[in-house]
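Chapter review. Work through the record for peptidyl-tRNA hydrolase before attempting the end-of-chapter questions.
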Amino acid sequence: MISIAALASVFDLQGRLLSPQRFEKSSGVNMASAASTSEAETIRSEKTSPTTRKTPVVEGQRSGAGGNVVPRGADPRLRPPMPAGRSVPLLICSIGNPGPYLNTLHSAGHTVLSKVAEAIRAPPFRKDRALGNGLVSNATSPHSGSQWVLWQSTSLMNVSGAGLKAAYNSWSKSLPEGEAKLVVIHDELEKPLGAVSVKVKQGASAKGHNGLKSILASMGGKPFVRIGIGIGRPISREPNDVAEYVLRKMTPEQRMKVEGCVEEVIKKLNDLESG
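Structure tokens for peptidyl-tRNA hydrolase:
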């Protein structure tokens, strides 16, 4: 039952509010005469309740709370493209030497990647034949939750390129073009012990680093990012003296310095996955 005072709130069959004039016209009720009757006089309304209607998404509007903007000219029914600044999955590889040479300065990349795995609580490393026979830990980024595959070469430093290429090819084939980023962590003679350097620009020289030479030759121009872990260099530049220096086991002090850069390396990896 609807009172005379509420007549202005009556809906038509399409769910639209009726003005008093439109109500008179559609119902035949004279508002002036109806107003003079008692407030107790009522009329029945057999109108149906308005139904909820969805407002269509139009160009330039958001598809919902927190939704993506539908680009102009695009079919609103289609899923909009992902934002340009999204995080990308990383294949993070370390190169060095196995066996008795694992804890040497030349294998500082392995040392750092092992500590990265500990810091982000990654699963234990396991040998994976499908990924170049390397040691693999499938982790997630502590920053974005995107995929980080940690990979340690099991080859000698000077021939590490073939295994790394096999790992990259196997890993990247399931990812969309341009969404796979390769990062190589290696020792760096030209930087002070424990210093971290990042090289994103392609075409840079290997500077005599045989592991990087092997990767450059194997990857055939495929881009990758280098993260160098400083190990310092001996005073002598004689090749034999340099070889003896890099293949020497790290002292506890040297190891502490190398492991001390892990937090900075993780920060660099966070930056790399975002841009």
